[in-house]
């Protein structure tokens, strides 16, 4: 007889099972709704319905130049998803103002933007399965439209608050930008934040680095369209940035949601410290987490952000032979990395409009 105490098996809780089953069925319905929201956002259907009053499927198809049969099925999905209202007597459809305030481009924050991550990341599921079995990661080039969607996200979390909320966190930086300083954005993507700053502060010079050739081309084209001569963009692998960073070359350096998916995040942070002048400021936006799974369960978007990490941020780092920190590396680990990179003064800030990010102001 085994002398070790055997664990007691908990009795099967029928009520708890029923709650889980209901939650799961609701999640399936919500997943279908999100797929349709992504399509509606990309095709401009929510904008076409916003403020238009009751519309037939034919009228909506005509107004958007789309095929009626597809529009009708899309409407059916979102009526079932309790997003769009249907009047069976007139067979017309209407987008309630409360949903328009979330999903149309007139919304303060267009939540439909985030629905796009579901189909976008679903395209690499087979690649991720292979990585689960064999290791490694999925490279950036497998993610079609990722920089496009991230640029939409950045427009809402960064651009909307850049001048009134984010830059003021770095005390005195706006006045220095007016007078003229050198600015670097690391992992700039399509460079939207940098382009807005270059437009607003013509006396300063701006540089953007990113690994994506597609994103850099877009940024260069946009800067050229605006006639900006104080900005440049460069395709750059930052894996060895601790060695290759230009020493004391920038008074202000920014990263927006960029450190956690780097192959060598500590090297990037050390490079930023090296490139910063002694009186310089480094301002970083990165995902708000706790560095612990049990506490991240309380994050309002925890499951969604971990899924994005598994399907993108962690794996693109591993694809480069990197550390694979993941989206939810957390505040505790971020502070540790920043201190190890050589920053002696680090302040952490939260902004009311942004529930998913922390803002770090770092000084040598």
From TrEMBL:
Give the source's domain of life in one word. Bacteria
| Domain Methyltransferase: residue ranges | 180-297
- GO BP: methylation
Question: Which keywords are on file for this protein?
Answer: Methyltransferase, Transferase
Ranges that cross the membrane: none
Which Gene Ontology terms cover its molecular function? methyltransferase activity
Q: Which positions fall inside the S-adenosylmethionine-dependent methyltransferase Rv2258c-like winged HTH domain? A: 32-104
Please report a single Pfam family linked to this protein: Methyltransf_31
- What Gene3D superfamilies would the database entry show? Vaccinia Virus protein VP39, Winged helix-like DNA-binding domain superfamily/Winged helix DNA-binding domain
Task: Identify the PANTHER family for this entry.
Answer: METHYLTRANSFERASE TYPE 11, S-ADENOSYLMETHIONINE-DEPENDENT METHYLTRANSFERASE RV2258C
Name of the protein: Methyltransferase domain-containing protein
Species assigned in the record: Marinobacter iranensis
Its taxonomic path starts at: Bacteria, Pseudomonadati, Pseudomonadota, Gammaproteobacteria, Pseudomonadales
């Amino acid at each position: 007889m085994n002398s070790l105490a055997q664990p007691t098996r908990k009795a099967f809780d029928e009520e708890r099972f029923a709650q889980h089953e209901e939650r799961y069925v609701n999640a399936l319905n919500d997943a279908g709704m999100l797929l349709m929201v992504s399509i509606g956002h990309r095709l401009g259907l929510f904008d076409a319905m916003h403020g238009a009053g009751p519309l037939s499927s034919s009228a909506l198809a005509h107004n958007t130049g789309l095929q009626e049969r597809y529009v009708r099925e899309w409407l059916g999905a979102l009526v079932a998803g309790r997003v769009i209202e249907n009047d069976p007597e007139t067979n017309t459809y209407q987008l309630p103002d409360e949903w328009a305030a979330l999903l149309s481009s007139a919304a303060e924050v267009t939540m439909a933007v985030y629905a796009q991550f579901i189909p976008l990341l679903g395209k690499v599921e087979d690649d991720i399965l292979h990585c689960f079995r064999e290791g490694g990661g999925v490279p950036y080039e497998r993610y079609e439209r990722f920089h496009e969607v991230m640029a939409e996200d950045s427009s809402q979390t960064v651009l909307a608050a850049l001048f009134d909320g984010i830059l003021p966190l770095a005390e005195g930086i706006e006045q220095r930008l007016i007078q003229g300083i050198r600015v670097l954005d690391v992992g700039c993507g399509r460079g939207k934040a940098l382009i807005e700053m270059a437009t607003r502060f013509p006396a300063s010079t701006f540089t953007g680095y990113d690994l994506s050739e597609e994103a850099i081309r877009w940024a260069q084209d946009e800067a050229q369209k605006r006639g900006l001569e104080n900005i440049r963009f460069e395709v750059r692998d930052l894996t060895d940035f601790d060695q290759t960073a230009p020493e004391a070359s920038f008074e202000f350096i920014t990263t927006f949601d960029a450190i956690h998916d780097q192959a060598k995040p500590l090297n990037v942070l050390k490079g930023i410290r090296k490139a910063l002048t002694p009186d310089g400021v480094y301002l970083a936006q990165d995902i708000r987490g706790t560095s612990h799974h049990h506490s991240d369960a309380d994050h309002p978007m925890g499951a969604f952000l971990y899924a994005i990490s598994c399907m993108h941020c962690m794996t693109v780092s591993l694809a480069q032979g990197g550390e694979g920190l993941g989206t939810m590396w957390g505040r505790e680990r971020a502070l540790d990395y920043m201190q190890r990179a050589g920053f002696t003064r680090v302040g952490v800030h939260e902004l009311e409009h942004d529930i998913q990010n922390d803002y770090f102001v770092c000084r040598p």
